[in-house]
Amino acid sequence: MQLPQIRINSQNARIGLDIQNAQLRLESQEADVQIQQPKADINIRTRPGRLTIDQSQAFADLGQFPVAESMRRSAAEGMQKAAQGSQRRRRQGDQLMKIEQGGDQIASIAKQNAPRQVRPFNIGFIPSHFSVKIDYEPAEVEINNVVNKPIIEARPNPVIHDYQAGAVDVYLEQKNWLDVDFPNLKFIGNQFEMMI
Q1: CA 37, CA 153: separation in Å to the nearest integer?
Q2: What angle, rounded to 10 degrees, do the helices at 105-113 and 67-97 form?
Q3: Which of 23-37, 98-112, 127-141, 168-182 has the weakest average pLDDT?
Q4: Which residues contact 53 (CB under 8 A, 6 or more apart)?
Q5: Are strands 41-47 and 151-155 parallel, antiparallel or unpaired?
Q6: Region class of 63: left (phi > 0), else alpha (psi between -120 and 50), else beta
Q7: Stated pTM of the model
Q8: pLDDT tens digits, one per residue of 58-71
Q9: pLDDT for the residue numbered 124
Q10: What are phi and psi of 65, to 5 degrees?
Q11: From residue 102, how far is each of 91, 95, 114 by CA, in Å?
Q12: Does residue 65 contact residue 59 with C-beta atoms inside 8 Å?
């Protein structure tokens, strides 16, 4: 027995795409920048160093004194020598008054008034150690620094851009179709008849 057969052949549609990519071109220009740097304000104050040298002790060791001190010492020494001279003359006068008692009073007085004995020579250090006093105050430097900020002027330049839009073209590359076949059936009138 032969059954009715249906044969179906089909073909799918196929779409084709024609794509044109978009193009973007960017051109960036450097910004215009101006920078000014004012100099810093610097104020320097200096107190000079102070060197003090005191040689008064060294000069005193040499027998040299300031005028006022020299006058005071000379006056004191003069008063002392005058007092010693008065005492010596009174003592020698008393000796001369006792001349009748015997003894060699005049020779004794002459010996007292004779020049002094020569002192022995000795090495001494004049002026004495550390008799010159040195004092130094170092200089003081005061620095005031005022920093001035830089002056910056910046002007950006626009970005140049060029854009070309892309495109997509869609087309039918292959049509679809459907073929249905009944090889052993025929449509006659308003019904199908099968060939046997």
Answers
A1: 12
A2: 170
A3: 98-112
A4: 132, 133, 134
A5: unpaired
A6: left
A7: 0.34
A8: 887 777 778 888 88
A9: 62
A10: -125, 160
A11: 17, 10, 22
A12: yes
